[in-house]
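Standup notes, protein team

Yesterday: finished cleaning the Kineobactrum sediminis set.
Today: MaoC family dehydratase structure.
Blockers: none.

Input for MaoC family dehydratase:
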Amino acid sequence: MLDKAKIGHEFPSFVVDIEKGRLRFFAKSIGETNPIYTDESAAQAAGYRTIPAPPTFMFSVDLEGPELLPILKLFDLDMGRILHGSQEFEYLGQIYAGDRITQQSRIVDIFDKKGGALEFIVQESRYTNQNNELVGTAQQTLVYRN
């Protein structure tokens, strides 16, 4: 069973520089065709200061941390037994090309189902820009098969 004493555990925060090319690549990879996500002139004409990050981009910020999935090490989990259960985003501001985003995450819940055959780890992440403005949060649930 996963150690519920780890509820509240905070992972080290880290900073990611958001680059235009990275936003363009992300937009193309998700099939986004709106030019505001790839062309700075189109973004500015639409009222943005520069290219904005497409929806769900916050998850790719998580992948820039010092470890790919720090939860694996924290709980000593076997990668082959992990499933992605869910992902939710709350948009509180806009991430733009040129921003420096600080990501901070913590474990907010651990529970099990099916008599412990499935264990769930709920992790919340917060994304703050260089002006100390909270621009979004995300919550993901990982499922661990025992």
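Follow-up from PR in the comments: Residues 9-18+53-145 form a domain with the Thiol Ester Dehydrase; Chain A fold (CATH 3.10.129.10).
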